Amino acid sequence: MGDYCSYCERQIETHLAVEHVQPKDPVPALRNEWTNFLLGCVNCNSVKGDTLLVLADFIWPDTENTLSAVEYKVGGLVEARSTLAPAMQAKAQQTIALVGLDKYPGNPGREPSNADLRWQRRFEAWQMAEWCRKQVEDNDTEQVRNLVVEVAKGRGMFSIFWTVFQGDIDLRRRLREAFSGTSYACFDANEELISRPGGQV
Fold first, then answer.
1. DSSP assignment of 28-74, as one string?
2. Which of 58, 101, 124, 165 suits a disulfide with 96, CB 3.0-4.6 Å?
3. How far apart are CA 69 and CA 182, in angstroms?
4. Is 52 in contact with 22 (CB distance < 8 Å)?
5. Do 119 and 99 meet the contact criterion of CB atoms below 8 Å apart?
6. CA-to-CA distance for 183 and 199, rounded, in angstroms?
7. What's the confidence (pLDDT) of residue 118?
8. pLDDT per residue over 34-57, tens digit each?
């Protein structure tokens, strides 16, 4: 999977957490069940907490094409994709709220704690992706394209880089191949989003 949070996608340098999809205390039978594990950062893991969930009410990164369900906006804001059917849009929004991806300064009732800088990391990643796009526009060489991929891998936030490089099939392909754990089945030959086989989206 690489060292990226399954939910917020940032690179986890320290405090890596094995995230239990269904929490281990209310469902002890799933405590050591491999299919109940995801990789999570300490923020996403703690915000999600240990509430028992109806799994079908959410969109999970190991079984769905979450990039088809979640849209990244300028500045790194995260929203349910507006083109989804209402029921799927509700699931996407519930998933965003479950792990607190809607926590950012100025969002009433969803202000982040001082220790939760995910919003800032997304903002910085968006700026870095825009800067990388400008470098490619100014000097489109193999070396610059390779550098962009290395910058993205070091930052994390695959979805932000993929969004910013809309229309650049080659760079989208390079990014997808560079981020281990990204399901190839979620993209077509032109690196556009398709439903994940067996998933809802």
1. GGGTT-GGGEEEE-HHHHHHHTT----GGGS--TTTS-HHHHEEE-G
2. 101
3. 15
4. yes
5. no
6. 12
7. 94
8. 888 898 898 998 899 888 899 999
For residues 154-176, one letter each, b for 16 or more C-beta atoms within 10 angstroms of the residue's C-beta and e for the rest, the string is: ebbbbbbbbbbbeebeebbebbb
Nearest to 129 by CA among 80, 81, 184, 74: 74
Q: Are 103 and 95 in contact (CB under 8 A)?
A: no
15 pLDDT tier (thresholds 50, 70, 90):
low
Residue 176 is encoded by which pair of tokens? 């997808």
Model pLDDT for residues 136-190, shown as the tens digit of each residue: 999 999 999 999 999 999 999 999 999 999 999 999 999 999 998 899 999 999 9
Alpha carbon distance 117, 41 (integer Å): 12
Assigned token pair, 57: 């009410």
